[in-house]
Amino acid sequence: QVQLVESGGGLVQAGGSLRLSCAASGRSSSSYAVGWFRQAPGKEREFVAALSRGGGSTYCADSVKGRFTISRDNAKNTVYLQMNSLKPEDSAVYYCAASPAFPLRIVTREDEYNYWGQGTQVTVSS
Known about the structure:
Blueprint: E1 3-7, E2 10-13, E3 18-25, E4 33-39, E5 46-51, E6 58-60, E7 68-73, E8 78-83, E9 92-99, E10 115-116, E11 120-125
Parallel strand pairs: 2-11
Antiparallel strand pairs: 1-3, 3-8, 4-5, 4-9, 5-6, 7-8, 9-10, 9-11
């Protein structure tokens, strides 16, 4: 099993940047595919970005492509979501999740993720 704790959320102006962290404990995060999802008020949770088990592959949703980057620091057992050029529509609670997927596989469906963090709020003001 793995436990996930997100941090790094906050209030930022449009055009600004934030870096979210997802710290894993219990088992190395490199043993899992990791994804970031977000949920805005009144909306369904949506996929944002994913990193394959082992970290060889990454993928971002079209809505954030070119602005967000997902990465992993194995020494710190932490996955990051660097968010640049933030827009008000990026405001949401951001969750990280882990999936025991096959190596190199990108997982975008939330029902394939077994472990979830508690979420961190990101608010982008216009």
